[in-house]
């Protein structure tokens, strides 16, 4: 059957989506599903997903057969059609640390670590006034250890621990 166009009408409706675009959308959902399956267990548990989608991803994580995994990923892609994929993408970016907010938190924690290692008690006082729930004694100890490690040329295990503590304190976990 030939497609007849009415005079003075656009060739397609604004609501009509091309087959190519639908295919690109489905491939994007498959990629999102694959990314969900490949998240670490800790990252995955932080996501808010529908029960059906959550169960499908857990099942996919346990599949070892290539063909079966491919079918399960197709199923996950189908389930993703019925949820807000942009919201899930945002959750993944936050959990993985790719969101602007997560990156900003990391940079802020790095700046505080450097200030604390260089500034001593004055910098610690500023940090404690901004974050009243911080553990003063633990911070003093870890700063002292990090400075000793830096002087002796050892690996900065304490500086990394300080960074981890600051990141958790600032909500970046």
Care to give the gist of this entry?
The protein has 173 residues and is mainly alpha-helical.
Report on this structure.
With 173 residues, the chain is mainly alpha-helical. The chain folds into two domains: 19-96, PSPTO4464-like domains (Diphtheria Toxin Repressor, domain 2), CATH 1.10.60.30; 100-169, Diphtheria Toxin Repressor, domain 2 (Orthogonal Bundle), CATH 1.10.60. The protein has nine helices and no strands. The protein has helices spanning 19-38, 41-45, 51-62, 66-80, 85-96, 100-119, 121-130, 136-152, 157-169. The longest helix has 20 residues, at 19-38. The radius of gyration is 25 Å and the shape is elongated.
The radius of gyration computed from the alpha-carbon positions, rounded to a whole number of angstroms, is: 25 Å
Main beta-sheet annotation? none
Question: Quick one: how many beta strands?
Answer: 0
Structural class: mainly alpha
CATH architecture of the largest domain: Orthogonal Bundle
Query: Helicity, in percent?
Result: over 70%
The succession of helices and strands, N to C, reads: HHHHHHHHH
Low-confidence stretches: 5-10
Q: What overall form do the CA principal axes indicate? A: elongated
CATH homologous superfamily annotation of the largest domain? PSPTO4464-like domains
CATH top level assignment of the largest domain = Mainly Alpha
Mean pLDDT score, rounded?
85
First CA to last CA: what distance?
A: 60 Å
Number of domains: 2
Which fold name is given in CATH as the topology of the largest domain?
Diphtheria Toxin Repressor, domain 2
Strand content: under 5%
């Amino acid at each position: 059957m030939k497609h007849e166009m009415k005079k003075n009408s656009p060739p397609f409706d604004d609501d009509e989506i091309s087959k190519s675009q639908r295919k690109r959308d489905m491939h994007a959902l498959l990629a999102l599903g694959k990314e969900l399956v490949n998240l670490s267990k800790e990252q995955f548990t932080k996501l808010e997903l529908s029960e059906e989608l959550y169960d499908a991803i857990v099942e996919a994580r346990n599949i070892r057969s290539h063909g079966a995994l491919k079918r399960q990923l197709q199923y996950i892609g189908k389930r993703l059609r019925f949820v807000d994929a942009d919201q899930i993408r945002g959750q993944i970016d936050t959990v993985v640390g790719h969101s602007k907010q997560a990156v900003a938190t990391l940079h802020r924690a790095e700046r505080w670590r450097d200030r604390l290692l260089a500034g001593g008690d004055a910098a610690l006082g500023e940090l404690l006034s901004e974050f009243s729930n911080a553990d003063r004694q633990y911070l003093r100890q870890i700063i002292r250890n990090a400075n000793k490690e830096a002087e002796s040329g050892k690996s900065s295990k304490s500086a990394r621990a300080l960074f981890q503590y600051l990141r958790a304190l600032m909500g970046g976990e």
